[in-house]
Write a structure and sequence with these properties.
By secondary structure, the protein is α+β, with helices and mostly antiparallel strands. 45% of the residues lie in helices and 13% in strands. A hairpin with a 5-residue loop joins strand 5 and strand 6. Bound molecules: 2-acetamido-2-deoxy-1-O-phosphono-alpha-D-glucopyranose and magnesium ion.
Length: 364
């Protein structure tokens, strides 16, 4: 079996003796690998099969991750932190590479699992959300000295929402799954917001918003926290680190973490944006980026939450129309349920935009 062959390819410490599926990402497949020793307790690694339908240049992607994590390790050590916990430590293969390609072209990577740390699917305690915000802001601050020209663009125009809108329009026209008649309301909702889609990319093109090295997938479950101290330990899922905007990282965090419900909640009456969590995130993010946001960015901060949520809703609906070829789904209408929560959040943010702007003004 390919998993077993992949396990054999990596230079783990100890002897691998057990593996199990792990995590809940929508893109890659993740496994925990247990390794034993004669006298010491076992240790665990994470092994992931990279989704090469989504990431077309796995070599470039791994080069990004290795160079970014090595850069972060040095910074964390210089600040007196623990570089084996503060960022990922990739495990090489037995022939000294960081990517193993199996006989079917499957691409695998591994890293040491960070123990005694948890990730959350929803905000149980507002202070944890504030801490996540600080950590994502700090991550961006740490990478501000990273040579951006060394990064491969793992998914070109990842958060170019104007392009996402064009892709969405094409998916509507293709109607590959034949589901279009079921989603006319959702399609109309998105079409009515076409003008919003170019606001951030236009601001970048005009020089009002700077390009930075950003994470681009700042879901709450992409951060590990210490369950005893509630402090952030490590930021995960570095596949989409690319030149981007601070607004993408801010907006995507609000989309996921400030929601009252899960991304795939079916009962839309349970779905809204929590203003108290929005405020916690603004507060923590401003602390983390440490004065680095420009006026142009501050001006679009509240709007970015709405736009990144609309973008994600648009992507879920496009995939639904395409027949579920991008995101992993667990049942037939999973992408549609996800799309609906996002659009409900967009509507709720529009209703609350004045209050969101006032909160941003308070902390900026
Ligand atoms: C995907 O891999 P995961 O689950 O962290 C997606 C994000 C979406 C997110 C929605 C590479 O993230 O862009 O916001 O699902 N990642 C990619 O939950 O497309
Ligand atoms: Mg993830």
């Amino acid at each position: 079996m390919n998993l077993q062959k992949a396990i054999n390819a990596f230079a783990f410490e100890g002897t691998p003796f057990y593996s199990e599926p792990f995590g809940c990402g929508l893109i890659n497949r993740t496994y925990a690998i247990y390794c034993k020793f004669e006298n010491d307790p076992p240790i665990r690694y994470m092994m992931q099969r990279i989704n090469t339908h989504v990431f077309k240049d796995p070599e470039g992607l791994m080069e990004n991750i290795v160079s970014v994590t090595q850069f972060l390790q040095k910074q964390i050590a210089a600040e007196g932190g623990d570089p084996t916990r503060g960022t990922l430590n990739m495990t090489p293969t037995k022939d000294g590479k960081y990517l193993y390609v199996d006989e079917e072209g499957g691409c695998w990577r591994a890293y040491r699992l960070i123990e005694h740390a948890v990730s959350y699917q929803s905000v149980e305690n507002p202070e944890i959300f504030r801490e996540a915000a600080r950590a994502f802001g700090d991550f961006q601050k740490k990478l501000s000295a990273f040579p951006a020209e060394r990064l491969h663009e793992t998914i070109p125009q990842f958060h170019d929402t104007a392009k996402r809108f064009r892709d969405f329009t094409a998916a509507v026209e293709r109607n590959a799954s034949g589901r279009l008649a079921l989603v006319e309301k959702e399609v109309a909702f998105i079409r009515a917001r076409e003008a919003d889609c170019s606001r951030i990319v236009d601001a970048i093109a005009a020089g009002d918003v700077p390009l930075r090295v950003t994470h681009n997938d700042t879901k709450l479950n992409n951060i590990l926290m210490d369950p005893d101290t509630d402090r952030a330990v490590c930021i995960l899922d570095l596949d989409t680190i690319m030149p981007g905007s601070a607004l993408y990282d801010f907006g995507d965090s609000i989309r996921f973490g400030a929601s009252s419900a899960a991304e795939d909640e079916k009962d839309l009456s349970k779905v809204y944006m929590k203003l108290d969590l929005f405020e916690k995130y603004v507060e923590g993010f401003m602390e983390g980026v440490d004065g680095r946001l420009t006026d142009g960015e501050k001006k679009l901060l509240a709007f970015s939450a709405k736009l990144l949520t609309l973008e994600c809703g648009m992507r879920f609906l496009s995939d639904y129309l395409d027949g579920d070829v991008y995101f992993h789904t667990k049942y037939a209408d999973h992408n549609l349920d996800r799309c609906r929560t996002q659009l409900k959040l967009v509507a709720d943010m529009e209703a609350k935009m004045d209050e969101m702007e006032a909160i941003v003004a308070k902390y900026c």
